[in-house]
From TrEMBL:
Transmembrane segments: none annotated. It holds the Pfam family TrmB. Gene3D superfamilies: Winged helix-like DNA-binding domain superfamily/Winged helix DNA-binding domain. This is TrmB family transcriptional regulator. Residues 102-222 form the Transcription regulator TrmB C-terminal domain. Residues 2-70 form the Transcription regulator TrmB N-terminal domain. CDD domains: PLDc_like_TrmB_middle (cd09124).
């Protein structure tokens, strides 16, 4: 059973041999009870001592060994396992190769899961454009990442109530504008997901292709700029029919 939790066969035999006796044992007796070769016994005992499963003391000139109670070992195994799980949760693996492929995603749930994962794994920056209904799903996570020191900028179509420092709200100004819901997230200047609705279903692309990431980063700030311009000068600009038509094509 101990071998299932990382103990070697020799370690299991030595522990069982010591635990089965009422009194502490010396190395010679342990060899006899455990059937572990004499040449290996001290190496195995030292590993068990390091694991905290065997105690040692000196009796005269002889070193004696005693096994830790099995229930204590069970508690230690559980505590070590839970600690390792927590460390694994926080461990991040960054890809070292350049992937120029464009991967496609379907299904709204899958797209949402990928967006959440990208936000959670962000180390330095997040750019996020989405309709307010979609962005609200990630608002708390985005605020958390900003609190951790990640630079977060969001552009919410329809507005968003949030504590984020860099937030922009695009409020549609044209009554006949044909808004098409979309989502764009760019993380750490290297990971991108762009999603839109096609035939009433969400579809998306995901890539780390540098040219595409750069182009879509420009696209994000292009929309931010237009949002701020129309917010400040919208009434004046929309009086010009040609500019109103261009704005409708650019931002709506």
């Amino acid at each position: 059973m101990l071998q299932k939790f990382g103990f070697t066969q020799y370690e299991s035999q030595v522990y069982e041999a010591i635990f089965a006796q009422d009194a502490p044992l010396d190395a010679t007796s342990i060899v006899s009870y455990s059937n572990v070769p004499k040449a290996k016994i001290y190496e195995v005992l030292n590993r068990l001592i390091d694991k905290g499963t065997v105690l040692t003391t000196m009796h005269g000139k002889k070193k004696l060994y005693m096994a830790v109670d099995l229930q204590s070992i069970i508690l230690k195994i559980r505590a070590d396992f839970e600690k390792d799980i927590e460390e694994l949760k926080t461990y991040k693996i960054k890809r070292t190769f350049t992937d120029e492929h464009i991967w496609t995603l379907k299904d709204a749930t899958s797209i949402a899961s990928n967006i959440e994962q990208l936000i959670e794994e962000a180390d330095s920056s997040i750019l996020f454009l989405a309709w307010n209904e979609q962005m609200e799903k990630y608002r708390e996570l985005l605020e958390q990442k900003e609190a951790e020191g990640v630079h977060v900028e969001v552009l919410a179509v329809g507005g968003l109530q949030t504590s984020l420092a860099h937030k922009y709200s695009l409020i549609p100004m044209l009554e006949d504008s044909n808004l098409e819901p979309s989502q764009l997230i760019i993380v750490d200047h290297g990971y991108l997901l762009f999603a839109g609705i096609e035939h009433d279903s969400w579809k998306a692309i995901k890539t780390t292709s540098k040219p595409i990431v750069k182009a879509m980063t420009d696209y994000f700030y292009h929309d931010v700029a237009l949002t701020q311009i129309t917010k400040k000068y919208g009434d004046q600009l929309l009086q010009d029919e040609e500019i109103a038509r261009l704005l409708a094509r650019l931002i709506y």
